[in-house]
Amino acid sequence: MRTLVLNAGYEPLAVVSFKRALVLVMNHKATVIERVEDDPVRASGGPYDRPAVIILSRYVRVPMSRRVPVTRRGVLRRDNHRCGYCGKAASTIDHVLPRSRGGADSWENLVACCLRCNNVKSDRTPQEMHWELRFTPRQPNGNSWTVRGTERSDPCWEPYLALAA
Ligand SMILES: [Zn+2]
Predict the structure, then answer these.
(1) Of 48, 82, 96, 144, which residue has the fewest beta carbons closer than 10 angstroms?
(2) Does a cis peptide bond (omega within 30 degrees of 0) precede residue 47?
């Protein structure tokens, strides 16, 4: 069971375990604004309502320029599992400027890629292939990124939650 954490300005900030959320609430750092019906948490001093959504009491400032760690899964998700070159279903990622030629493992240099394009392109650049990227690869926006990935709390938000706690 996960709890959505809203910043004091109501923008979604992170998804945390309900235990983590309860600790924030019990320390008066956050208020429950939506609870899970008929499923209280049994704990010492409890039972407590199981929080579905909490809002922080204090506004936490989050710099938007913060780097989101780049992962293979993250690149595929950012690109909706579509090949950056042909738009077909992608299962691999491609270094736009090949690593063998100094290309970085960065959001800006990685795109989702179908097996076929990846094999054909090999260690050449899109220019050499006369290929065009369907979009300019960028680091995903931290906020929407965290909201979309609801299955876990993104470690890059931890320091901000710690600020609130
Ligand atoms: Zn392709």
Answers:
(1) 144
(2) yes
CA 113, CA 8: separation in Å to the nearest integer?
39
Model pTM score = 0.50
13 and 160 in contact (C-beta within 8 Å)? yes
Instruction: Extract the tokens encoding 164.
Output: 């609130």
Distance 39 CA to ligand 1 centre (A): 47
The CA 88 to ligand 1 mean position distance, Å, reads 6
Rounded Cα–Cα distance for residues 87 and 29 (Å): 45
62 C-alpha to ligand 1 centroid (Å): 36
**85: CA distance to ligand 1 center in Å?**
5
- The tokens for 73 are 């899964």
94 forms bridges with which residues in the sheet? Answer: 111
Which tokens in the block code for residue 90? 């992608």
